[in-house]
Amino acid sequence: MPMAHPRLAPQPPTIMTSSPAQPLYITMHPQDNVAIVANDGGLPAGTVFPCGLTLIGHVPQGHKVALTPIAQGAPVRRYNVIIGYALQDLPAGSWVNEKLLRMPAARELDHLPIGTAQREPQPPLEGYTFEGYRNPDGSVGTRNILAITQTVQCVAGVTAFAVKRIKDELLPRFPHVDDVVALEHGYGCGVAIDAPEAIIPIRTLRHLSLNPNFGGEVMVVSLGCEKLQPERLLPPGAIPIADQREAPPLDVVCLQDDTHVGFMAMVASIMRQAETHLTRLNARRREIVPASELVVGVQCGGSDAFSGVTANPAVGFCADLLVRAGGTVMFSETTEVRDGVDQLTARAATPEVAQAMIREMAWYDAYLQRGSVDRSANTTPGNKKGGLSNIVEKAMGSIVKSGSSAISGVLAPGEKLQQKGLIYAATPASDFICGTLQLAAGMNLHIFTTGRGTPYGLAACPVVKVATRSDLARRWHDLMDVNAGRIADGEVTIEDLGWEMFHLLLEVASGRKKTWAEQWKLHNALVLFNPAPIT
Ligand code: CA
Asked: What is the pTM assigned to this prediction?
């Protein structure tokens, strides 16, 4: 299918305004024949832009306007990519929405450009540091949290009860521990645990318990009769320590153990074990570490047409800064990058990285096909209301979160990071599943962009939320940490905001600043990706 040439670097958007009160549209590339209306509330019929373009009907904020006449069947271009073909003649100045477009087919996964768009490495950024917690395995935490791993959903109620008592009765005695988190999930029994793809939820749970923010203190609550036995979840050697010969036995509280007579005996066991781990965690102190120890997962949710204009390009610029500082950035959400696969393989650092990306996308294509859908199942009613016509347009805006660095590694779902740099961590786009898989990969800080607005948060890791529009940032002033709408308002550049975010991340990582989600303790559930059968 016809696709545009891969872009070598994000194009700065052209913003046609001198003041925000004027009618304003934003173009992403000189070749585009549509732009999006930027003004709050949209613009009425008869509006004349400074360039002379006149709207022939109302166009809502974030929605597309035809810059030139587009004939029936002709391509509609945004980001210099064909996002659809006109289903009827579209005069200049008309509203171009999803009902007027036919979506292009997905790019085939063969004959892709491999490593052809590699950017010259940018000069390293030296001297940036934050204060973090060094872990026995060499990773660094941005928070000091006791996590209680669970083998199975059956123990969730008892563990939650115990965690409440730990927080009320024990935590006040351990002021250097930030929180206690129960790693609750729906897996562990009633599942086809020997199915080949069961490895995904199992390794996700294993690696979650090893997240850098948990300080290497692993404790497990097990029921006893479940399929996912503690030794299968965390086999010998799974917990990295300096000398495996001295590895202590796995710390497991088994609820069906004969010694537990009554519910309170189970709670007492969990609290006793927790106290041992809290004592060790409480002895730790933050120390100055290089910014290269940051492991930042980037994600978007509740996207609108501004996501790809303001927040995501600024996050992309920040991602480039993090990579230049020697850090790690993970981008994910396979259905939202699938349509830009040629841009990504072109940025692969090695042919092996490109092949791994193709392997993950082919696996996901087949996974969707098994469910009789394709990538177009991704877009939501809110995306369309926000101006995103289809997954091609959404993907072009989503992919810019990855910045412009060479892609140095690929992770399959649930795998743990083994290297630094820009990494494609293959995950579904679902906010909770993506967040869970990025935590399992080793994320110690999360950036989340949103246009429609979501109060998303994670208990295990700070989430910096970035609003794509000033209107959202104003209304959700105590939920959004960064207002990228200032880019569309002409107040800051993408580069300025990228630097602002970079500095903010170092502050948040050091614990000097809390995100709004942390302030209000807004936590979404951990949600496992389980493509294997349930029994
Ligand atoms: Ca998402």
From this structure: 0.93
